[in-house]
Every structure is written in C-alpha cells, then in structure tokens.
Specification:
Structural class: alpha/beta
Strand order of the largest sheet: 3-2-1-4-5-7-12
CATH superfamily of one domain: NAD(P)-binding Rossmann-like Domain
CATH architecture of one domain: 3-Layer(aba) Sandwich
CATH topology of one domain: Rossmann fold
Distance between the termini: 37 Å
Strand content: 5-15%
Low-confidence stretches: none
Largest sheet: 7 strands, parallel
Helix content: 25-40%
Radius of gyration: 19 Å
C-alpha cells in the first residue's frame, strides 16, 4: 500500500530512490560499475541513489559515480552522503571528457529544455553535439540515454499515443535537437557495436515538479489553465527510475528505443477538477481541447517491466497535500501547454 502522504524532502527522496525487488535481483547480473552523466539535474540524484541502494541490497560491489557541474552544492553533498562518488566538470569540454574513466555502464541524463528558445546554439550543443562525444568516448560501455516523447508529433487523442515504431516528427528546435541526440547515439551504436537503449520519457512527476504540479499550482492560485494541449501522460519518477535502471539488460546494437510513461491518457480539465475539489476551489480555464496532443504508448515498457506501481489518484493526493503544506518546489514548469515546440 502506498503511503498516505509525503511530509518532507527526506521521505520524498527515500521513496524516489527505493529500488524494486526486480531491480535488486538484476544488479548482480550487470557486470561493471555505473556512471551517471548529468547527476546534478532534477532526476539525477534519485536515480543514482536508487542504483546505490539496489547494489547494497544485492550484496555486490560496484562503484556508483555521479558527474555534473554541480551548481547545486546540496545535490553533490546528498550523493556523497549516500556513498556515491562525485566528479565535477563541464561535459562540453573535450579534454575533460577524454580523462573520464571508461566505466562499463553509463546513464546519460544531460540535456537542455528550459530556456532552449533563448539559446538555440547551446541547446543543440548539449542535446546533439555532446551525445556524439559521449558515444565515442564510451564506445565500449553500455549506454542508457535519456530522450523524450517530444520527438513524436502531436497525435489524435483517441489513438493511444505514439509507439516506438512510429516515425519521429519533432515540432520545434528543442525536439529536433533531442532527435539529434538519439541519432548520435544510434550512430555510435552502429559504428562501434555499442549496446544502447534510448529512453523516451513522457512525463515524469514527483512532488516538486511535473505536469500535475503545474496544474495543481494554477488551480490553487486561481490562474486560468490553457486547455489547448488538453491531454497528457505521466509516470511517478520513482517508477520511471526503476524501469530505466532495469533497461540496462535490454541495451542492444542497433540501439533499442523504449517509451516510458504511465498507462492512462489523462485530461488536463479532469485533473484540474480533482485538485479543485481537494483545494475547495473552482478551476479556471481558457481555450478548448484540441483533437491532438503529445502522447506516448508505453505498452512495450509494461511488457518488459510491468505496470508502474504508483497510480494517478495517489499522485494527485500526494501533490495536493504537498502544496497545501507549502512543500518546496523546483520552480521548473514543464510548459506542457506548448504546441509549437518553443520552450
């Protein structure tokens, strides 16, 4: 049974990094250490700590290394306290990359979305140029690379979402640069026979950020919610972390692609009404739902990993309680309302 509420960041971090029994059982079969590139981002700490916990529970010896610029000292300290080695540096520095240890298992989390329209050159450098450097340096590793469902086009709401076999048609330069990231890893996989899996994540949520948090905050503040992008998918970040780590066993060449998100197509309007009932407020809306949305079909991930363990009603309850109790926020809106790809 899920907990009734999440009362502080310590409890939140514990839940986000709690490994499943299946992950713990997989870890002894995974040879080599694990390196997380971009461990200072909003997802990096929880997934790296989950790996560390799974290794310890499995009773095996592996190094876990988190690499980032670590502009947030608290994030680096959190990792170190959990027994994770940390490296600090700029991944766009080729000399720095050339000195990195050739770790057997690599999780690539680095990427740029927020503010991408204001600095398109940097967006392409981080999302497309950097992956080419990483694919070359870690040619003898297994690579799990974060991507995004944004590489898909907007699709009919009733269609069940885009599948991995669908042809990408990214809208806007951010999404195009993300497809560039995938192509660089695909090229590296083919050229060097590097086992790779590309994770098209869409959308992960926890208490401090995500589409559900964005909707809840607007309801609570009485801010009108744009319904143009009227439907979406979400998955609890802890469930996503577990699936992503377990995906090491499916790395292949050519690179494998997998969608990770929740099973439901959720309505922005209906979710706002749910939060409104909890907050005792009537949500305000603007516009109307389009017939298309950015949606992913994650049936392949459910076949491989099973369904996410945390349902949407639980997430709504947790997030509402968190906001009502003035829990901390990352203040990084997802911009889920965007339909032209300009983030």
């Amino acid at each position: 049974m899920p907990v009734q509420s999440i009362v502080n960041e310590q409890q939140l971090e514990e839940l986000l990094s709690r490994p499943s029994e299946k992950l713990v059982n997989m870890i002894p079969e995974l040879d080599g250490d694990i390196l997380f590139l971009g461990a200072g981002g909003k997802i990096g700490a929880s997934i790296a700590i989950m790996a560390r916990r799974a290794i310890d529970l499995a009773g095996v010896k592996k190094r876990v290394i988190g690499l980032s610029r670590f502009s947030n000292e608290k994030q680096m300290q959190l990792l170190q306290e959990q027994g994770i080695e940390t490296l600090r540096g700029d991944l766009l520095d080729q000399d720095f990359i050339s000195q990195l240890p050739k770790v057997k298992n690599v999780v690539f989390l680095a990427g740029m979305k927020f503010g991408s329209e204001e600095n398109l050159a940097l967006t392409w450098a981080i999302n497309s140029y950097l992956p080419a450097l990483i694919a070359d340096h870690f040619r003898d590793s297994r690579i799990v690379a974060f991507s995004t469902g944004c590489v898909y086009p907007l699709v009919p709401v009733a269609g069940g979402g885009s599948k991995e076999s669908d042809i990408p048609d990214p809208v806007g330069e951010y999404a195009q640069s993300c497809l560039g990231r995938e192509r660089m890893f695909e090229y590296g996989s083919l050229r060097h026979a590097t086992p790779v899996i590309l994770i098209r994540l869409n959308y992960a949520v926890e208490m401090r950020y995500g589409v559900l948090v964005d909707i809840a905050l607007k309801v609570k503040a009485g801010i009108p919610i744009d319904l143009a992008m009227g439907y979406f998918n979400v998955v609890w970040q802890g469930d996503a972390n577990d699936m992503i780590l377990r995906s090491f066993q499916y790395c292949s060449t050519p690179a494998k692609i997998i969608n990770i998100t929740g099973p439901e197509t959720l309505s922005v309007r209906e979710m706002a009404v749910k939060f409104g009932k909890i907050f005792g407020m009537d949500p305000k809306f603007t516009g109307k739902e389009a017939k298309t949305a950015l949606l992913s079909n994650a049936n392949e991930s459910f076949r491989l990993f099973g369904y996410p363990g945390t349902d949407v009603d639980t997430l709504v309850s947790w997030i509402a309680s968190w906001i009502e109790n003035d829990g901390s926020l990352l203040n990084k809106p997802t911009h889920f309302e965007v339909r032209d790809g300009k983030y």
